[in-house]
Structures are given as structure tokens and as C-alpha cells.
């Protein structure tokens, strides 16, 4: 009887150990190379400090969201939290409890047609033609068209085909500098929380707790600042410059 109980206990321990060691499937949207590198490093570090491993895939934004909505991935690193919490219930994924960093959004407009962030936030009464990344349309309180290509949207702004493009400063600035457009004006739009996406129903669960605890541990040992410091300096606070 004792032997049988011992074998049963051993089986439970082995099974539990298998769960704790199970690799997490993590998707990262195709943003700027600097952001991809930072997001890969931080989620890998969180997993490691929590005794887990992360299998990371870099995918187009829409594909990464699809992987989360269909529960084919455990975590997406990183996405911008919709500020209007009344919209969260309709999402097919959850947000992590703990934010990773602030992400500055910038309004890129054609210099021949000045637009202010204030008039857009007031409802875009003049009906400006605007685009943002397709995964971020719900972040705004006015009509805005989805885009799947930063370069393409900036080309439209530069030529006057659309009036403006609103998106994350780090990724969009990198594209703007590479493209060398001179007909575009930059201004701060807003700052949002950059969070991890979780499977629907996972907020408050083990993966969410792992992220919260992992970030706390990395901040305590200095690894968080080592990884995130350069990224936050370039992406969390609006930097004034013009093309």
C-alpha cells in the first residue's frame, strides 16, 4: 500500500513539474526591429526568472491578434491597451494586470493641412481622413481607417491622399526617418499603456500572475531597466523633432 501511494505521489509530482516547465507560446507583432528585440528580451527574461521558457514567434499584427483570439498563443508582447474600459468586454482576449511601459502615440499629418490632436479628440468635426494600425482602430473615439502597412500610410500622408496617420512613435518614427519624407509634420497625440495580451479569461490567472511577479523581480534585480530603459527613452515620452 505504501509503495502504491509513493508511486502515485511521484506521478503527481512529475505531472506538476511538467506543467511548470511547459514552454509558453508567445507572439510578437511585426513592429520596428528595436521594439521586436526589446519585447523578445523582456518576455524571455520574465519567463526565465519565473522558471519557465518562452517560444517566441514574430508575426504580422493581424496574425498575432488572431493567435490570441483563437487561444493558439499564451501571450502577445506587447500591445496598446484600449483606454475605454467599457470596450474590454467585447474583446476576444484579455489584458495583463500589470503594464509593461507607456507608449507614446504621434499624429503624423500633411504640412499643407494642419490638424491638432485636440480637435480629433473632440470628435474630428471636420472629418479628416485618418488611418491607424488595424489592431488599434478601437483606441479612438472618432472614425479612423485601418492600415496594415506603416510605410504605405506615411506615403499617403506625404502625398496628401489622407490627412493623417496616428500610431506608436517608436515604430512610425523609424519608418519616417528611413523613408525621408519632408511633407509630414509630427505632434504628440496621447500616451497609452503598453500591456501583454492574454487568452480570454486568463486575466488574474497563473500566466497573468507570472507576468506581474516576473516584472517585479526584474525591477528588483536591475534587469528590467537594462532591457527596457533604452526602449522607454525612445518610445514612452514624445520626442520633439520634425522631418
End-to-end separation: 78 Å
Secondary-structure element string:
HEHEHEEEHEEHEHEHH
CATH class of the largest domain: Alpha Beta
Cα gyration radius (Å): 21 Å
* DSSP strand content: 15-25%
**Number of beta strands:** 9
Q: Low-confidence parts lasting 5 or more residues at pLDDT below 50?
A: 1-20
CATH domain fold name of the largest domain: D-Maltodextrin-Binding Protein, domain 2
Helical content band: 40-55%
Helix and strand content put the structural class at alpha/beta
Shape: globular
Count up the helices: 8
Count structural domains.
Answer: 2
Question: Mind summarizing the main beta sheet?
Answer: 9 strands, mixed
- The CATH fourth-level homologous superfamily of the largest domain: Periplasmic binding protein-like II
Mean pLDDT: 90
Question: What can you see in these coordinates?
Answer:
The protein contains eight helices and nine strands. The chain is of the alpha/beta class and 243 residues long. The chain folds into two domains: 24-102 and 193-235, D-Maltodextrin-Binding Protein, domain 2; 103-191, Periplasmic binding protein-like II (D-Maltodextrin-Binding Protein, domain 2, 3-Layer(aba) Sandwich). Strands 1, 2, 3, 4, 5, 6, 7, 8 and 9 form a nine-stranded mixed β-sheet that branches. Helix 2 links the parallel strand 1 (24-29) and strand 2. Helix 2 (33-49) packs across helix 7 and helix 2 packs antiparallel against helix 8 (223-235). The longest helix has 20 residues, at 2-21. The radius of gyration is 21 Å and the shape is globular. The model is unreliable at 1-20 (pLDDT under 50).
Amino acid at each position: 500500500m505504501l509503495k502504491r501511494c509513493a508511486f502515485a505521489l511521484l506521478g503527481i509530482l512529475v505531472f506538476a513539474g511538467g506543467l511548470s516547465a511547459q514552454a509558453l507560446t508567445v507572439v510578437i507583432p511585426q513592429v520596428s526591429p528595436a521594439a521586436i528585440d526589446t519585447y523578445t528580451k523582456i518576455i524571455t527574461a520574465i519567463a526565465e526568472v519565473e522558471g519557465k521558457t518562452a517560444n517566441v514567434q514574430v508575426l504580422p499584427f493581424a496574425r498575432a491578434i488572431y493567435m490570441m483570439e483563437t487561444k493558439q498563443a499564451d501571450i502577445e508582447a506587447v500591445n496598446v491597451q484600449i483606454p475605454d474600459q467599457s470596450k474590454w468586454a467585447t474583446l476576444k482576449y484579455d489584458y495583463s494586470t500589470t503594464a509593461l511601459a507607456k507608449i507614446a502615440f504621434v499624429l503624423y499629418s500633411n504640412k499643407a493641412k494642419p490638424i491638432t490632436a485636440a480637435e480629433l479628440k473632440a470628435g474630428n468635426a471636420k472629418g479628416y481622413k485618418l488611418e491607424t494600425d488595424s489592431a488599434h482602430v478601437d483606441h479612438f473615439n472618432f472614425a479612423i481607417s485601418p492600415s496594415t502597412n506603416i510605410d504605405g500610410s506615411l506615403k499617403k500622408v506625404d502625398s496628401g491622399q489622407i490627412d493623417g496617420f496616428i500610431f506608436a512613435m517608436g515604430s512610425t518614427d523609424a519608418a519616417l526617418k528611413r523613408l525621408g519624407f519632408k511633407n509630414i509634420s509630427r505632434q504628440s497625440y496621447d500616451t497609452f499603456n503598453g500591456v501583454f495580451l492574454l487568452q480570454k479569461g486568463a486575466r488574474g490567472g497563473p500566466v497573468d500572475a507570472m507576468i506581474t511577479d516576473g516584472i517585479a523581480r526584474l525591477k528588483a534585480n536591475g534587469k528590467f531597466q537594462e532591457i527596457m530603459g533604452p526602449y522607454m527613452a525612445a518610445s514612452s515620452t514624445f520626442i520633439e523633432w520634425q522631418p
